[in-house]
Amino acid sequence: MKSFDQLAVIGLREWINLPQLGVIGLRAKIDTGASTSSLHASDIQPFERDGQPWVRFTAHIGTLVQRRHRCEAPLLSVKKIKSSNGQAQSRYVIRTLLTLGAREWPVDFTLTCRKTMRYRLLLGAKALVDGQLLVNPALTYVQDKPTLADPGAQ
């Protein structure tokens, strides 16, 4: 049996932070069948800042108690995505830092309405590869819940 020491093990569900967006303590569903990661967002408005494309949106945090958080991020692209039900739609794509356990790395997210989904964030295969993560589907919440990083530590 081979082992891969450089890979961190995660479960099917994990706690994450998106520190650049100010989103802390969000439950994520790990989906190895999805290439791209997605974040539940509403009120999505593209705009320009210093001649560069940006997007403003409301991130929805929590399932039982719904909290809304207004975010802004540089717009990476607009991508055509085929959802699990086979429908294609154009989605705005942003890149932001993701914290999972002790790891932090940039992840591309499509912004979409996930209000009918249990998890507000879906972490796809590209993010798993970039984060060097190995998924054990028999486990959940393997990594410690990330906390807000000390601003003086960076």
Automatic annotation (TrEMBL):
GO biological process: proteolysis
Keywords attached to this entry: Hydrolase, Protease
Residue stretches making up the Retropepsin-like aspartic endopeptidase domain: 9-146
GO terms assigned for molecular function: peptidase activity
Keyword Protease annotated: yes
Pfam families with a match to the protein in the record: Zn_protease (PF05618)
KW Hydrolase (keyword) present: yes
InterPro entries: Asp_endopeptidase, Peptidase_aspartic_dom_sf
Descriptive protein name: ATP-dependent zinc protease
Organism listed in the record: Pseudomonas xionganensis
Lineage: Bacteria, Pseudomonadati, Pseudomonadota, Gammaproteobacteria, Pseudomonadales
